[in-house]
Amino acid sequence: MAGFAKRYLLICTALAGLNLAAPAYGQPQETCLSFTDGLGLAVDGAPEIDAAQARSAGAEAALREARALRRPQVSTFGRAAAGDNGLSSSAIENQYGLRVSQRVWDFGDSRLALAAASSELDQQEYLEEMTRLNAARTLADAYLLRLEAQAMIDVIAERREYFRRQQSSVDALLAQGGATRAESAQIAAELAQAEAEMLELQSIYDRAGIRITEYTGHFADLCSASALEADISAAMTPLATIDDAINAALTANPSIAARRASVRGLEAERDRENRARLPIVELVGVMAYTYDDNREDWETRDRLGVDVSVPLYTGSAINARSDQAQARLASEEAGLHAAQRDVREEAQITFRRQLSLNAQLQRREAVAQSQQAYFDAISGEFQFGLGTLPDLVEARLGYEQAQLEVVRARYDLLREQISLLHLTAQLLHP
């Protein structure tokens, strides 16, 4: 009986342990929105991407239209005429038929039309990629802003808690005559200042969160700053030198590639306008079901021939269109050169800036360590009555300011790196 009771007690204990452990497995695991996942969600849900895709679809339709110049053109027709036939009779003539034409020689007109349409499609696809990068950049800026605001809130929250403790101590000393009202007011002022700064940072934090939610369609906590730094560091690997950054910006930047495609398309349009005076040769076949007035009966007729069309006089319209095409090409080439210059300049400035910010971050961290040591020393002296309250407050504020400068330097560095990744089109394709 005792053995049975012992076994029963063990079974109940085990079941109780299982019941206690079960909720831990049933609880949903907390997840965070990583930087790369956020970029992907922002790109997938951006309406600007839909507009860019619509423009690409229009360019693709124009390309199909240009390809049709090399294919047979088939049309039907119907004719009805009333009048004198041979000035001897009045009759009504009817025709119903089919017309088939095929270009056999156009001196490169269809080829150039196809090249221009193909370049236009390339341009729209590059612009679509640029739109994706811009959407990702907007999300990245909001992601950094929210993490930076949170880091600064944490620093100022420590200051607030510190001065709350000091206020309690000073109020107790004030009641005993060991502190002055000026010292109490100074502590209260610093506490109010900390709370005001936290409210402002909380507003920035919330604003960034709203933007992230709108762009991703998800409301979730962000992953840690260390995970963000790891993602950006991995993406920065191909940009080890300033030459790597310049080459990537000139070759991979979609806006530069779009301008190159536009130049190619305008070159094709210019060459096409310059060939506008050359003939276009077509094979034409016509088959019709015609009413013969003489026989007063229907009969089938067919004809195969060659059509040659050459513009002889257009009132200088051809020359004007050619000049317009040349002017558009010259303008786009100048725009391409200006864009390349600006991208080279921005790549060099951004690369050197992120190197400078990296060095500044290391110096800021060293300053923060020194300020912490100074504050610890002043705190120790104050406890033994060797320092004053203003000295303690000043040391505390100096230590906190050094911490805030570290936060600013860290996120300024991350912003410059993101700018470089955006410029070199590595933000979405590390």
Describe this structure as you would to a colleague:
The chain is an alpha+beta fold and 430 residues long. The chain has two domains: 32-71 and 109-276 and 325-423, Outer membrane efflux proteins (OEP); 73-105 and 279-310, Outer membrane efflux proteins (OEP). It is built from ten helices and four strands; from the N terminus they run αααββαααααββαα. A four-stranded antiparallel sheet has the order 1-2-3-4, with no helix packed on it. Helix 4 (109-176) packs antiparallel against helix 5 (181-216), helix 4 (109-176) runs antiparallel to helix 8 (254-274) and helix 7 packs antiparallel against helix 9 (317-383). Mean pLDDT is 85; it is low at 1-30.
Give the key terms.
430 residues; alpha+beta; Outer membrane efflux proteins (OEP); 2 domains; 4-stranded antiparallel sheet; 10 helices; disordered N terminus
